[in-house]
Amino acid sequence: MTPQEADAAAAAGAVVVDMRPPKPFAVEHIPGAVNFQFNRADLADRADMALPRGNTYVVHAEPDPIAKVAVQILAEAGFTVQGYLEGGLKAWKAAGLPTEVLPLLNVDELKDRQGAYRVVDTREGFEYRFGHIPGSELLEWTEAWDEMAKVAADRPLALVCGDQVRSAYVASVLQRLGKPASLVFGGMADWTERGYPVEKSAK
Amino acid sequence: MIFKQYRFEPLAQASYLVGCARAKEGVIVDPSDDLGAESYVLDAADLGLSLVGVFETHVHADYVSCARELSEMAGVPLHIHEAATGLVKYGFTPFTDGQVFEVGKIKIQAMHTPGHTPESTSYVVTDRARSEDPWFVLTGDALFVGDVGRPDLLVGDQALDVMDEVTRARTQFESIGRKLFGLPDHVEVFPTHYGGSTCGGVNMSGKVSSTIAFEKRFNLAMRQPDADAFARFVKETSKPFPDNYARIKSYNLGLIAKDEIGKGARR
Cβ of A63 and B22 within 8 Å? Predict the structure, then answer.
């Protein structure tokens, strides 16, 4: 799809699925895009777990050969896919279309200003119970789309997972809804490496 | 650390992906056109990595490289040692001996190991998440498992070559003996060829990796007493020239187009 076609599709309600890694996504992405990890082995399974089938999707992945494969995988898995953005972000920007940023936090910044954020852990329940940032709330990434409206945004949201893949997905879903989401880059791996406190819970 | 060896068996050629699992960034070394630029891009994406660079250990003579296509497709620099400047007729990002490339917690240090070709470089890789000591070295066609890269693959146009066959052999002996064998014994060796490849001699092992310590003790070419004996030994133990090597090398130098390579590239 040309940038104009992708833009028109998004304006008509299609969800742009950005399959680049979280870092380039955070730096710059198409407004409203949802960040979702590419992987030929399990993309269909993970999409089935997290992405609603009622939506229409437009793929953004770079370079184009990845986008083509992603469209094929999602379509074969039964998702409605209109196509992919040819030429990626470069073509999008060349067409004069706007982009947005997902704010990044590292674990030190989060630790220093923890009270300023509502920390949301996007891992699975068993991972959260094993050890999470004190005071953080659990919102499993597979539930994010259905639960996103319920997430309180009285404070800025800091999204956490093991690294930054699942948290980037949830952060992008919340940002799409207009909520003030930041991505904690490095996640629990960095947090525990620093020796910062973790809390366990029985259930 | 993410590390993958890709093998194209018909040419006994190995290419590599080296990346940082934390930073989600990676580089490709010595990509093969037989596997194709798309295959590397897709594999990096499967691993959740952003490609940040393409590296050649040298300009190859026995297989068609896809480094240019890959660098363009991924929108990242193509790195070759500065000695290739002028020989290579396309744009690349030259580096110097000892230059360090940081990929997240992974450190890739260029070690200029000329001999097989003037620009030949080995890449010494350290995973700082594990240790400040190097862990392995990508030796290109300098040091092979059981053998060494041949010094006699001169391009058709002799004017383009800055070293003759004997100078190359002597230089190769010094590069391996003084530089690569100066690395800690535990360092693993991952070459660009193994087994049946015609880029080395008859003593090349089918095993796809080794260590500095093992090659120091048992590499027959490097057991020769001096550079002259080494040069004679390498010549005596050489295999026939690789198929169509002059045209493959000419393509890899940017002198001819891909459709002019003709048969012999086994593509």
Answer: no
User: Given an 8 Å threshold on Cβ–Cβ distance, is B42 in contact with A163?
Assistant: no
Q: Would the pLDDT of A192 be above 70?
A: yes
pTM of the model: 0.93
Nearest to A125 by CA among A67, A193, A200: A200
Structure tokens at A194: 């620093």
- Indicate the CATH number for domain A104-193: 3.40.250.10
Distance from CA of B52 to the nearest CA of A (A): 12
Complex ipTM: 0.90
Quick: pLDDT tens for B251-265.
999 999 999 998 754
Contact A34, A17 (CB under 8 A): yes
Lowest mean pLDDT among A55-69, A157-171, B166-180, B207-221: B166-180
Q: Give the CATH number of domain B2-247; options: 3.40.50.300, 3.20.20.70, 3.90.1150.10, 3.60.15.10.
A: 3.60.15.10
* A120/B7 Cα distance (integer angstroms): 43
Digit-coded pLDDT (tens) for A110-149: 999 999 999 999 999 999 999 999 999 999 999 999 999 9
Q: What is the full DSSP assignment across B43-59? A: HHHHTTPEEEEEE-SS-
Domain residue limits, chain B: 2-247
pLDDT value of position B200: 82
Query: What is the predicted pLDDT for the residue at B158?
Result: 59
Alpha helices in B25-88 (DSSP H): 37-46, 67-74
The Cα–Cα gap between A133 and A131 comes to: 7
Residue A39, min C-alpha distance to chain B (Å): 4
